[in-house]
Design a protein that fits this description.
The protein is mostly helical. The chain has four helices and no strands. The longest helix is centred in the middle third of the chain and has 29 residues, at about 40-70. The protein is elongated.
Length: about 130
Amino acid sequence: MSLHITTLYALPLILIWFILWVRVAKSRGEHKVSIGDGGSKELLLCIRHHGNFVEWVPFTLILMVLAELQGAPHSWLYAAGALLLLGRVLHPIGLNAEIPDHPLRYISNSSNWLAVAILGVALIRIATGL
């Protein structure tokens, strides 16, 4: 079985990961910091943008792979993938040190939670035969 739907969402996520990684590397160079954030709020924010991506995306893609391989409904996979992608695009905008309760931060985190919930329910249904 192929993983067309998961691949469809993984491809743009590669680009987002790369952009976030480049931002960290560039900020490290500008601040001359190899390890940690060196007290730079800008570098810390870049690290958190990238770190949050790394915390969410691999886990969610693993759930997508499991669900797709086991024949989860395509609509569920598309919904979860779209929510994950939406969350990953919005999160770096919403995670802002100057505005800790930025609405896009809540929207992005909620979309990631919802993507995981959809995939979790799909996997429970598959595992239990419901």
